[in-house]
Amino acid sequence: MAEKIQTEKKAAEQRKIVCKGPKDKNSGAEAIRLPELSKKDKPFDIYEGQTLVVGRDVPAETADKLLKMDSWKFEEVK
Fold first, then answer.
1. Which residues have C-beta within 8 Å of that of residue 70, sequence separation ≥ 6?
2. Cα angle, residue 67 at apex, residues 66 and 68 outer, rounded to 5°
3. 8 in Cβ contact with 54 (< 8 Å)
4. Greatest CA separation for the chain
5. Which of 17, 27, 10 is nearest to 62 (CA)?
6. What is the pTM for the complete model shown?
7. What does the pLDDT look like over 41-77, one tens digit per residue?
8. How far does the chain reach from its first CA to its final CA, in angstroms?
């Protein structure tokens, strides 16, 4: 029973960010690639509308950098 409560608390505390796309819609960009998170055979690309869970999909430091980007718009969601 205690595990269930901890799991529910953890789920409620998760930070999420959503990609709203490039700030300049005429840039032609469809995705943003993060080489530092890419695996050997699979690039890590983020597309417009994609929601990322902080700590699972991207580290907190990367999420903070994405939220501060000048060329792409990211927003924190609940």
1. 23
2. 90
3. no
4. 52
5. 17
6. 0.77
7. 899 999 999 999 999 999 999 999 999 999 999 999 9
8. 25
